[in-house]
Amino acid sequence: MKKAIALVSLTAAIAASSQAGAVQITLACGTVGQELQLCKDGAARWAKKTGNTVKVFESPNLTNDRLGLYQQQLAAKSDAIDVYQLDIIWPGLLSQHFVDLKGKIPAAEVNEHFKGIIAADTVDGKLVAMPWFTDAGLLYYRTDLMKKYGYNAAPKTWAELATMAKKIQDGEKKTSSTFTGFVFQGKNYEGLTCDALEWLVSFGGGTIVDDSGKITVNNANAAKAMDTAASWVKTISPAGVTTYGEEEARGIFQSGNAAFMRNWPYAWALGQSADSKVKGKIGVAPLPSGGNGAAATLGGWNLGVSMYSKNQAAAIDLVRYLTGADEQKLRAIEGAYNPTRPALYKDQAILKANPFFGSLLDVFTSAVARPSGPTKLKYNQVSQAFAGAVSDVMAGKTKGAAAVKKLETDLARIKGRGW
Q: Would you say which domain of life the source belongs to (predicted)?
């Protein structure tokens, strides 16, 4: 990976940093939306409190790129990064490279987080990481345009969304040629896996591979879900949607050029910022149903301590600090990052900043996990094959039925004698 990685140093006060025993910890942070700044701010608070120093390693935006970079570092047993920010789907893939936090972080503290996320962070009894923030896919919509075109509520089905998006788009295009109905993550990467899994589950098409490890994607409902998504391209979504990640979709919606958007909770706070063209005009709702109920893919990020860190005790302390209740509350208020602690969903300051956190709590607690558990070390190959199949359907290269049939064969090859 040739991409230059910037290192931004965050230091405590000079006097504090010169304390005896002070160490330097390198923390890998994401850079989507406000992630990087909030990560720097939290690290700086810990540095000031402890007298240690933190360097923030700026990771690539796209999860696939970030995983590739991490795997290079870890395979080399590099001590360059002490604390890694890990996607919820990575513990099974990377567990051998991370310190077991069980016993090193008090059980009472661990138990304050959502049980499902702790379970996802636990591999063969080893607590690979601590939950930092959780995610689930949401539908964002323009409240002013809904009212303008006679709609009183968010769409409950994908068919309703298509109808609404087309009507609003056609009306707005009379004065804005770049206006579009619906934007989402259509680029061939992990983000498309997330979006497409929501389509499949909402149509009753399953989760690609079930909990027992059986390949289930070759079915009519999964095919219908893919074909439906393909029908949006060049009708209610621009042709370029097949190149969009989270930030591209957010940029279009936040600039006032889309009626609907699928994205993660972080987009809320940015949409309410002073420079947002849609500030005060955003509604949030569960994603629509394809006939089998609404479905939201479980996302979220966690913090793990590298086995190769030379300062593991300080690194663990940093993880405890950043995943603590005070830091999670700050991140929720300032950046709309969902806490992983159920108690914080009753916090009035958090609910004032993010009204939908309370009303959509069920969306977050019942989000659909990607099949990283049953497919273990082969999940990345499974996800790439799935996203590639969906991408081909959206590009018009094939139809849903043919895509899921071929995908079943491809997944069986990846599975080999077992996951």
A: Bacteria
Confirm whether 133 is domain-assigned. no
pLDDT of the residue at 5: 42
**Per-residue pLDDT reduced to its tens digit, 228-270:** 999 999 999 999 999 999 999 999 999 999 999 999 999 999 9
Kindly state the average pLDDT of the residues 90-108.
96
Range of the domain at 19: 7-128+299-365
Q: Are residues 254 and 381 in the same domain?
A: yes
- Give buried/exposed letters for 185-211 (b at 16+ CB in 10 A, else e): bbbbbbbbbbbbbbbbbbbbbbbbbee
Asked whether 183 and 246 are in contact (CB, 8 A), the reply is no
Identify the domain boundary among 365, 383, 398.
365
**366-375 residue pLDDT tens:** 999 999 999 9
Compute CA distances 256 → 143, 289, 338, whole Å.
12, 25, 25
Beta bridge partners of 102: 105
Count of domains in the chain?
Answer: 2
